[in-house]
Structures
1.
Amino acid sequence: MNYKRWFTDYAPMILIWLGLVLLFGILSDNFVTSRTLATLASQVPPLAIIACGMTLVLIIAGIDLSVGSTLALASAMLGVALVDWEFPLILAIVVAVITGGLTGLFNGAISVYLRIPSFIVTLGTLEIARGLAYLATDSQTKYLGVALEPMARPLPGLGVPISFLIAVVVIIIGQFILTRTTYGRYLIAIGTNESAVRLAGVPTARKKISVFAITGLLTGLAAVFFTSRLGSADPNAGVGMELSAIAAVVIGGTSLMGGRGSIINSFIGVLIIATLGAGLAQIGASEPSKRVVTGLVIVLAVTIDALRGGFFQKLKMRFKTGTL
Amino acid sequence: MKKHFKLLLQTTTCTALSLLLIACGQSKSDKTSTETAEKPVIALIMKSLANEFFKTMGEGAEMHHAENPDQYDLIVNGIKNESDVSAQVDMVEQMMSRGVDAIVIAPADSKALIPILKRASDAGVLVINIDNKLDSDILKELNLNLPFVGPNNRDGARMVGEVVAQQLQANDEVAIIEGITTTFNAIQRRLGFEDAMQAGGVKVVSKQSGYWEMEPANNVASAMLNEHENLKALLCANDSMALGAVAAVRAAGLEEKVLVAGFDNISAVRPLILNGQMIATADQHGDQLAAFGIQAALDILSGGEQPKDQQTVVDLITQETLNQ
C-alpha cells in the first residue's frame, strides 16, 4: 500500500468534507449528532450510486445528462409494478433496475453507433425519460405506503440503512474495476486517446456502450433507494440531479475531458454536497445564501484539486514553451 | 458499406421525424381553420402539467369545454418545470401570434409574467389570471386590469394552520416548508400559516423552501427535525412537500410527536390523512379553477360582465371530512 499516494489522492477531499462538518458543528446546535449523520447516510445513496456511473462516463470522455429523468422513470416503473401490477417487491425492484439499464443502453447504442455526442443523445433522453415517467404515472405521485420502507430504515446496531451499505459496496467494486482490471484501464485509455486504443485492436464501441448501460443500471438501483426513502414514486423526482451528480464527480477531481477520475473521490464529492445541503438547511440559511455558498464550495473544491494536480507547474511549463 | 448503412439510417430517421412533425402540424392547422370562424378561442396556460394539481385543472377545463363545445374553442398548454418562467412567457407570445381571444393563465411567477401579459392585453387579448395572483402593486402602477379568479391562499393556509394550532400549546415549536419563495402563492400560504401560529401563540422556529417538490422538502424537513428537537409540526405549502415531510418524520421515528400539514389535496395524501400521518390539507378545487376562469372570460367576451376579481372557495380536508 502506497500511503503517500493514498494521502495525496484522498486526503484533500476528506479534509474539505471534515472541514464542512466541523464548520456546521460550530454554527448549529445539533449538527454533529448521530441523528444528523444517520440522515446523511440515508440521503446520499442514490446520488452516490449515480455518481459512480457518472464517473465512468466522464472517464471515457462522455457525459450522461439523462440520469435525473432516468431515475424518475425507473421510480415510476417501480411504483407501477408495485401498485398497478401488484408485483412482489423483489420483482418490482428488478423492473426498476432494468428500466434504468435499457435507458442507458439506448444512450450508449445511439451515441456510439450513430456517432452522436453523448451530450446530445442524453439531452434527448432527458426529455424522453421524463415524458415516459409522466405517462407511466399518469402525472400523479404514487403513494407506495410502507412496502419499501424496510430498505430506508436504519439497520439495528449500525444506524445506517441497507441502502448506504449497498452504495459503499458499489463504490468499492467500481473503484476496484476502474483501477485493478483491464476493463477499467481500457476505459481510462479510451478517455485519453480513443483512436490509439482502437488502432491497438481493442473494440472500443462495446466498452463505451457498456459504460452507459452500467450507468443506467446504477441509476435504476438509485431510483429504488430514492423511492424507498420517500415512500412515494414522484414523476417529478430527480429534476436537476444530473447537475448534482456532475458537480459531485467534478469536485472529486474527475476530468470532464476524460481519462482521469476516481470513484472514491466522487463519493466524497457526494458527501460534500449532501453535507452542505443538510448543514445549510439546519442552520436555517436563507435561500440566496444557500445557492451562493454551494456554488462557492464547488469552485473551491475544484480549485484545490487543480492545485493538487500540479496545475501551476503545467501553467509555468506552458508559459515557458509559449503554448499559453 | 457500413458508412452507407449509417447514412441510410440517418436519412430514414430524419425523414420519419419530419413526416411525424408535418402530420402533427397538419392536425393542428385543420383545427384552426374550423375554429377561427366565429367561436372565440380561449387559451389556458398553466404551470407544470406534470403536477397533479395542474393536470386536474386542465381536465376540468376540458370537461367544461366538452359541455359547451359550441361556445368556444380551447387550447390547453403547460410548461414542464414550475419555475421555468421564460417558457411560459414564450407560450403567451405563441398564443398571441395564434390570435386567441382570451388567455386564462396560472402564472409561474407573479411579477415576471406581467410585461408580456400587458402586451397581450394591449393587443386586445382578454387576460384572466387564475391560481397564482399577479402582483397587484405592479398592475396598479401599469394601470392594468387583469381580473383574478381564484381562491384566497392565505385564508386556506390559515384554516389548515388553525387545525394544527388546536393540537398544540402556546410556545410549542413548528417549522414551515415554503414553496418557491418568489411566487405569490408561496408567500400567501406562508403568511396564512404564520397568522394561525401567531394566533395560537405557537413559535415558528424555521422557514425554508422545499421548491414545491418532494425530495428537496424531504431533505429540508430532515434537517429541521435534526436541528430542532422539540419540533411539534411541519407546515408544508403543498402536498408533494408534505409527502416528503411525512417520509422525514417517519425516518426519524417521530410519528407520534410531529404533525404534518399540506395544501392542495392531491390523491396521494388521502391515505395519509385517513391513517393520521397527515393532519390536514386544503382543497382549492383546482379542477374547477380553470373552468371558473374560462367561464369568467366567456362572460366578459360576450359583453355581459365587467372584468373584476372573483374569489373561489377553499375547503379544509381532515380525517373527519374524508370520512363523511
2.
Amino acid sequence: MEKILKVENASFSYDKQNKVLKDISFEVERGEYIAIIGHNGSGKSTLAKLLNGLLVADSGEVTVANFSAKDKKSLFEVRKRVGVVFQNPDNQLVASIVEDDVAFGPENLGIERKEIGERIDFALKAVGMEEFRKVSPTRLSGGQKQRIAIAGVLALKPEILVLDESTAMLDPQGRKEVLEVVEKLNEEEKVTVIAITHYMEEAVRADRILVINHGEIVMSGTPKEVFARAEELREIGLELPPVCQIVSGLIKKGLQIEKEILTEEELLEALCELLQKN
Amino acid sequence: MKDVSFGQYYPTQSFVHKMDARVKILLIIAYIVGVFLVASYHFLGFGACLLFVIIATIFSNVPFSKVLKSIKGILFIIIFSAIIQIFFNKSGKVIWWIITDEGLLNAGFIVARITLIVLGATLLTLTTSPVEIADGIESLMSPLKYIKFPVHEFALIMSIALRFIPTLLDEIDRIIKAQKARGADFESGNLFKRAKALVPVLIPLLISSFRRADELADAMDSRCYAGSKNRTRYKKMHLTYRDLLGFILTAGLITGVVFLNGFYVLLVI
Amino acid sequence: MRIVAEELNYVYSEKSKKLAVHALNGVNLTIEAGDFFGIIGKTGSGKSTFVQHLNGLIPTDSKHGKLTVGEFVLSNKKCDYKALRAKVGMVFQYPEYQLFAETVFEDVEFGLKSFYPNLTKEEKEVMVKTAIETVGLNYEEIKDKSPFDLSGGQKRRVAIAGVIVSKPEILVLDEPVAGLDPQGKKEFISLLHTLHKTTVKTIIIVSHDMNLVAENCNKIAVFCDGKVAKVGTPKEVFTDYENIKKTGLDLPLIAFLTQKLQEKGIEISTNLTLENFIKEVFKKHEEVKAKQREGGNR
C-alpha cells in the first residue's frame, strides 16, 4: 500500500521551551481511517495543524505524497491534498451563500470557472446538501453547517480529510449526519480520514487508533487492540467506549464473554447467548 | 435581535436579482443622487422616485412588506429628524405655538428623503447577495489598484464582515442573557452607568471575536488562500439586456426629476 | 423552592403572523425542591425556551399561562426579577466564554454587587471565598489571577462560582459537560453532585446526552414540540420506548440494550447505570445457570 502521509520525528513547541509534541512518528496509508485520541491539552489539535503546514515542526518532517510541509514552495501542494475541518462550524465559513463558500477553495487555486461549478456540484452532493446551494449558512443547523465546511474542503479534491474535533459542538443528530458523510467519503470516494477526537465511540469505527498523551504517541493499533488496554487508557484520562466498559465489567465478574466486542450489536448478540435459557 | 432586515439577502429568481451587481450599485448611486436632486417642497419629484422603487420592487419578486420593514429599523432616526425640523425651524409663518409652515414642510421633506434612500438601498441588499455586492464594489474600485489600494483585501473584509453579522448578533444575545442571569442590569441608571454595564458584554465579545478571527484565518489558510494573486472567480459579472433596461429606467427617473423640478420653477414664475 | 408551570405558552415574534414560532405550547411541569432534574428533547423542542423562563430572561405574563418559582409568581407583572435571579442561578453552554474581569475574584464577585449591594467588603470576601472553594479551586492561589490565564476546566469552574456566589436555591445548567474530555466530564459531574448535596437544593440540567441524564438525574422531563411529552424517573421515561421514539430521541445505551433483550424474551430490570446493569446481567446469568442445572438434574 502507498503511504500517503509520513510524520517523522516531529517536535513542536509554541514557546521554544515546553514541547507540545515530542518526537512524533507515524505513517498513513491511502484510504485508511485513522482516529487520534487524547485528552484536552494532549497535543492532538497541534498535531492536526502540523499535518497541513498551518504550523511547521521545529524538528522532524511532515510529508504528504512526497511534498514537504516545511517547504514554502510545496506548501500549497500539501494543503491541496490535506483538507482540515475544524471544531466550530461558524468560524470556518467565509461566505454568506453556501455555493460561494464552497467555491472559496477552488477560487484560491485559480481554477477555471466552469470547473469550479462542477466541483461545487460534486462537493455538495457528496455531503448531501445539494438543495441548500443558494441558502445562507446562518439558516442551517450545526450539523448542516459542518457538512458545508466538509464540502468546502472537498472542493479542493483533497486526498486526506482531517477532522479536528469536528463533531464536538454538534447535537447527537448533527454528529450522526457528519459521521455518516465522513464514513461514506472514506468508503466510496476512498478519501483517507484522520479523525481527531475525544469521543471514544467515534474511534470504534477506525481502522487504526493512535493514542496521544503529553505530546507523545503512547499506543497504536486496531480499536480492539487499543481498547483491550483499559487500565492504561484510564491512567491517561481516557475512558473506554460504554460498550467496552460493560464488556470489561462483565469479564471482571467472571462471565464468559467475547473480549473483543466493539459495537452495540455485537454486545447484544453476546448478551443473548449468555442469558438465553436452554 | 434577529429581525434586522437591512442587509439580509432575499433569495429568489427575478429580473433584478439577475442584474449585474456593479450596475445595480451604480444605479442605486444614481437613484440617491436623483433623490437629492428633488428641489425643496417639491413632492412630485419624490413621487417619481417612489414610482421607481415600486417598479423595481415588482421586478424583484421581493414582497413589499420585506422592503418596507427596513424603515422600521431607522424609524427612530426619521422621527428624530422630523421633530428637530418641526420644533426648531424658526423660519416661515407660525401656524401653532412654535411650529412654522416651513418647519412642517421641511420635516415632510426630510422624512421623504431618508425613507426613499433607505428603501432603495434595501432593495439593493435584498436582491444582491453580500458576496455579489463585495465583488461589485471590488470591480468598480479596481482602477484604484494602480495607486496601490488593496482593493481585493478590502472587498474580502467587507464580505466576511457581512457574513459574521448574524453570528455576532446571536453571540451578543447569548452573552447579555448570561450576564443578566448573574444580576447585570442594562436598563436602569444614567448614561454613564449604562455604558459601564456593557463592559461585561463587550469584553467577552471582543475575546470571542479574536478567537473567531484566529480560527477563520486557519480555515482560510487551510483552503489555500493566498491573497488575490492567481485567484479566479466563480461568479463572473457580465452585462445583459437587463442592465441596459435598468439604465434606461434610471436615466428616465433622473430626467423626470430634473424636468419636474424645472416645471415647478416655471409654475412659480 | 418548587417550580410549577401550568399551560405555559411562548411564541417568538408573536405579533408577526408569518414569522411567529410557537416555542412552548402549554407546558405543564412541576419540579420539586431537591430534585436533580433532567430536561431532554431535540434541538427546537422548546427546552431552552422553557428554562429561560425560570429566571425571567424570557418574561411571561398572565395571558400565557402560569409560572411560579417558590414564592415568585412570574406571570405577575410585578415580579422582582433581580431577587428571583439571585435565587435561580443559570449556567449557559460554554460558560467560560462569559468571563470578563481582570481577576478571578472580581469576576466571581460580579453578581454580588447587584444582587446584594448592601454587603460589606468582608462579607463579600467570605461569600466569594466560599464559592471558589465549593467548585474545588484553591482560593488563595487563584483569586488574583486573570481568568484568561486558567485552563479550560478551571475557567468553567470559575464561571460556576460566579453563579453560585449569590447562594441560589436552584441551579440550571445547559449542556454542562459540552467540550470536556472523559476525565474532565467525570470530575465535573461529581462536582455537580457535591453542589447538590452541599450548596444548591435543586439542580436542573438540560442536555442532549442521554447517558448523562439517565445516570445522574432522579427525574426527567422529555420536551417535544413545545410540550412535555413525558415526566418520570429515568427508568419510567426510558422504558416507555414508544414515547421516546415519537420524540425522535435516542435511547441511552443501557435502555437500548434492555429493550432489545426484552424483545428476545430476556427481562432485565435496571436503574440505567452501567454498574447496575452489569450487576443485573450477572444476576440473570446466575439464574439461567441455576435453571439449566435444574433442568440437567431432571
3.
Amino acid sequence: MSETVLKVENVTMQFGGVVAVDNLNLEVNRGEIVALIGPNGAGKTTAFNVITGVYQPTNGAVWFQGEKIVENHPQGKMKALYKGEHAGEYTAVLAPTPDRVTRLGMARTFQNIRLWKSQTVFDNILIAKHCRATSNVFSAAFRLNRKEEAEQRENVEALLETVGLVDVKNELATSLPYGRQRRLEIARALAAEPKLLLLDEPAAGMNPQETEELTAFISEIRDRFRLTVFLIEHHMNLVMNISERIYVLDFGKLIAQGTPAEIQNDKRVIDAYLGVSGDA
Amino acid sequence: MEKTNKKRLWITLLCAAALLILVTLLENVLDPSKNVMLFISLKKGAVYALVAVSMNLLNGFTGLFSLGQAGFMLLGAYTYAILTIPTDQRDAVYYIYNGSAINFSLPELLGGGPVGLVLGVLLALILGGCVAAAVAWLIGLPVLRLKSDYLAIATLGFGEIIRAVFQWDKLGPVTNGANALKNFPTFSSFNIQGGPRLSTCVAFLLAGICIAVILLLINSTYGRAFKAIRDDEVAAEAMGINLARHKRLSFCISSFFAGVGGGLFAMLVNQAQAKTFTTAMTYEILLIVVIGGIGSVSGSCIAAFLYVAASEWWLRFLDTETVLKNGFKVPFLRTGFRMVVFSVIIMIVVLFFRRGIMGDRELPDLLAGLSGKTRRKEASGK
C-alpha cells in the first residue's frame, strides 16, 4: 500500500558559501498529500527546484517511482567549499532537464503564476499535452496526426469540464480572476498526465473563501486522477486540513515531520514557525 | 471552435487563390515593359514576404531574436545558383577561375526542357534551404544557449562571417569569389515563348507554398510549443517541452525557408553575389516584421508588399529633379531624397501602429470578425 513515489535522499544544495537546503531527507507515498512548510527563506522552493530538475543539487540523490532520477556530488571549486554531510557517498552525476522530469510523471505549478499569457485557457492546457504527443514535426505540420490532435482536444475539453473552467475556455488566460488562474495552472499541470503533482504555494494571495475552494479542489483531483500531491504552503488551515503528513524546514534543515496533530504540538515548530496559537 | 477554424481556412485559401489569379491576369493583360516597377515590386514583395514570415517564425513565434536572416539567404542563393547554372555557361561565369569546380546542372541532369527546368529549379531551391538549415543546426549548437540581445549579436556575426567566407578567393572555383554568379534560370525563364507570361505567378506560387507550410507548422502542436516558449520559457520547460530541441527546430526551419527565400531572391535579381546579402538586408526584413506585427504572418506579408512598393516604386519620383512647366524647380527632389521621405514614413507608421499593422492578429480573424459584425448588425436592424 504505502509505496514510495518520491524519495529525497541526503540532498544538500549550496550556492557558493550559502547552504540553502541542508541534508534533506523525505519520502512521499502513493496517494498521499504531503506538505512542506517553514518560514520564508527556509529553502522550500529550492527543494522543489532540485526535485524537478531546475537546480542540480550539490550532493545527494532524488528517487522517483523507484528509479534514481537525480544524483550529484561536489565537484570542482565546490569540493573545498562544501559544508554539508555525506560527502563522498555519491559518485554518479544524473542531471535531467526539467522537461524530462515532467515526462517521467511529475508536474508542478509555480509560486507566482506562470501561465502562457497570450494564449487562451484552452490553448494553455492543449500546449501542456504537447509533451505526450508522439507525432514528429513533419506529421504534425502536414496534419498526418489528425487522430492524435482530435484526441488531445477531446481530453482537454474533458479536463476543462472536470476543473470547471469550460465556460471560459476561449478567454485569454490572463483575463481570468486570480483564483481561477491558480486553478488553470493546476489543470495545466494535470494535462501533462503526472503521477506526482507538486504545488508551490497554491493558495498564495487567495482570500479565505478561495482557499477553502482550493482545499476541496486539491482533494478532489487527488481522488479523481489517483495522484500523489506534494505541496508547499503558508496557509495553515489548508495544510492542516488536507495533508496526511507534514515536513517542516527551517534554515534549510528538516526540523520536524509527522501528522498535522503532531506538528501543531511540536515545540521546535512552534518556536521556529507557527508561533503560539490561540492568543492572537 | 471547429467551425471558425474551417471558416478561417476557407477565407485564407480563397484569398490566396484570388491573389494568384489576379497576379497572373495582370501580368498577361498589362504590358510588362511599361509597368516594370509594378512587376518588380510584386515579385520582390513575394520573396520578402517569405523571408519576413520565416523571420517571424523565429522572432515572433518562438521569441528568439535572431539577425542571421541575410546569411541564410546567402547560403540558399549560392546553393541554388551553383546547382543550376547550365554547363555550357559555366566557363563564361567562372572565367576568372578558369571554369567551375562543379560541372553539372540540375535542370540538365533532370532531363532538360521545361520538365527538367521546373524539377531542377524546385530541387535546387529545396537543397538551398537544406544547406541553410544544416548550417543553422551547426551554429545553433553554441549560439542557441544565448538569450535575447546576445543571440542577436551572435547571429549578426554569423551573417558577416558567412559573407566574408563566400568572397574568399580560395573558394573561387565554387563560389566565383567576390564576383556574381549569373546565367542561371530566373523567374523570367518561366515566361513561355509566345504563350502566357508566368514569371510573377511562379514567384507568388513558390513563396505562397512556403508560407502555407509555415502557417501549417505554426498551427500544429509544435507551433503551439514554440508560442509557449515565447510566452514563458520556464513554464514551457516545466510542462515537458524540451527547450534545446524546440529552439533548434524553430531555428532550422526558419533558416530553411530563409534559404529558399534566398534562392528566390537570386531568381529575382538574376544573380547571386555575396555583397548583396548585407546586414542592411536583415534590417530591412526585421523592419517588415516589426511593421507588419510581430507574431502575425499576414501582417508580415502585407508589410512586405507595402515596404517594397514604397521603397522601390511609389517614391521613385522623389529621386529625379523636376522642373515644372513655368520653370519652377521643385525643391529637395534629387537622388537620395526618396530614402529620406521613406524613413520619415517608417517613423510615422511605427509611431501610430505601436504593435505593427496587424499586432498579433491574422487577416482571416479580421475578415471573419467583420462579417460577423455586419451579420449582427443586420440581425439587430430587423
4.
Amino acid sequence: MVENDRWGTLFAHIILILGVAVVVFPVYVALVASTHEGGTFLRGVMPLLPGSHGWENYSTVIIEGRSNAGAPPIGGMLWNSFVMAMAIAIGKIAISLLSAFAIVYFRFPFRIFFFWVIFVTLMLPVEVRIVPTFEVVAQLNMLNTYAGLSIPLIASATATFLFRQFFMTVPEEMLEAARVDGAGPMKFFKDILMPLSITNIAAMFVIMFIYGWNQYLWPLLITTDDSYYTIVMGIQRMVTGGDSEPLWHLVMATVVLAALPPILVILFMQRLFVKGLTETEK
Amino acid sequence: MQTKRMTFNSRWLPYALLAPQVIITLVFFVWPASQALWQSMLRQDPFGLRTTFVWFQNFERLFEDSHYLASMKTTLIFSVSTTLLSMSVALLFAVMVNRMIRSQNAYSTFLVWPYAVAPAIAGVLWWFIFNPSVGILPYILEGFGYDWNHRLDAGDAMILVVVAAAWKQISYNFLFFLAGLHSIPQSLVEAAAIDGASRTKRFWTIIFPLLSPTTFFLMVVNVVYAMFDTFGVIHATTEGGPAQATNILVYKVYRDGFVGNNLGSSAAQSVILMVIVIALTVVQFRWIERRVNY
C-alpha cells in the first residue's frame, strides 16, 4: 500500500460486500424458493427466508419428476449431464494431447495444413452452424445417443494450443536422454510427457468439464427422447412446458441441482480453474 | 512454425496421432460449414419439393428484410450493453480487491463461482427474480412507482437479458482484470504517489492505460460471448420476445432454421455470423502478437 487510507479501505470493503451480495443474490433466492411449498408462490411475492419443505421438493424432482408436464425425474438428467461433461472433457484432452504431440515432436509433410484445419474449429462455434451440423449428426444416426451429445463438441483448438505451448517448454534434453536410452515415441509420450503435463491436464479438465456440463443448444437439438435429456436443457422444458405459471419451488430445486456440480468443481479446484482459464486464452 | 530441434522419425505415426482430431474437425466442423455456404445459395419451395440455385439472392433478401436489420440492431445494443456492464462492474471489483491484503482470496472465491453457472440457468434465475407476479425486484420497483413487465415491455425484456448475461460474465472479467492489476509494477504507482497524484488520478493516468491490453482482450471475448454464447439466456427466458425485442442474431438463426424451416435464409445468416466470428478471431490474434512487446 502506498499510503495508509483507512476510510478508503473501509469504503472498498463496503463496495465489495455489496458486490458479493449482488453476485450471490440470485442463487440465494433460488435456494430459498426451493424450500417452500408450491402454494407460497400463489399468494404473491416470494419470501426471503428459507421454508421447511426443502427435503420434500428435492426428493420430488430427483425421483418423481413432473409427469403431468412431461418432465422426467431429474436423477436421470443429472447422470446424462455427467456422462456428457466427462466424455467431452476426457475426449477433448485425449485428442488434443495426441495432436499436439504430433505437431511438436514430428516433422512431416502437410504439418502446417493440419495445424490450420485444427485452428478452424476456433472460428466456428456450434451456434453458428447448427442446421448443417444437425443434419450431419442425423445422417450418422447419432440423434439420441451419448456419442451424438459429445463427439461433435470434442474437437478443440484451444486445448491443442495449450498443450503445444506447454510441450515447447519441455527441455530438449528430455527427448535426447529418452532416445539415448532407446525409448520410442509412444514410450516417451506415456512415461515422460504425460507425467510432466499432469497439472495442465487437470486445469484443462476443470474448464472443459464446466463447458460440457453447461451445453444447452446442442442437447436441445439432438435429444427428443427424454431419457437423454441433460439437466441444463431440462430446466427450459420445466419452465415453458406447463400451461400456466411454472411450479417455482420445483423449478428452483432443479436449478440448484443443475448449478451445483460445476460450482463445486470451481470452489474445490479454484487454483487449477484459474490456471486453466488464464492459460487457455494466451 | 517450430518443432523441437530433435524429432522422432516415423512415416505414419504423426498422421495416426492427428487422425482423431482431424477427422472430427472435418466431419463436424468443415463439412457442415461448407454445407452452410452451399445452402445459403439455394432456395426451397414451401413444400420442400424443389430446390433452385439462386446465387446471392438469400443475402440480398436478408439485407432488405426489416426483421433482420432490426435483429442486427438488437444484437448490437445487447452485446454492447452486456460488455460494458459486466466489464465495468468487474473492473470496479478487481480494483477494490487488489487493495486488500489478507482478504483478497476470500473475496475472489465469492466473486469467481458464477462462471460455473450455465447461461440458460443464469437466465432462469434472473427471470424468476424479475417475474412480475412472484419476483422480488418488480415488488421493490412497484414501491418506486414503476410497473415492471418484461412480457409486454421491450425495454424491460432487454434489461432482463442484459443483466442475466452480464452477471454470469463478471467473474471471468474479474479474474483477468485482477491478473492484469497484479502485473502492473508497484514502483510506477508509488512514484506517482510521491509526486502527489491522488488515488483517482493514479488510476486514470497510470493503472487504466497499463491495463489497456487486458481491457481490449476482454472486449473482444465479451462481444463474442454476448453474440454467440447467450443463446441459452434468450431461449430460456424471453424467446426473442416481446415483439422481437430480444431476438438476437444467433437466436434468429435457430428460429428460422428449426422453427420457421426457412433453410436458405438460415444458412445465409449462419454464413454472415461465421464471417463475424472469423473477423473477431483475427482481431484477437493480431492483438496477441502485439502484446508481446507492449
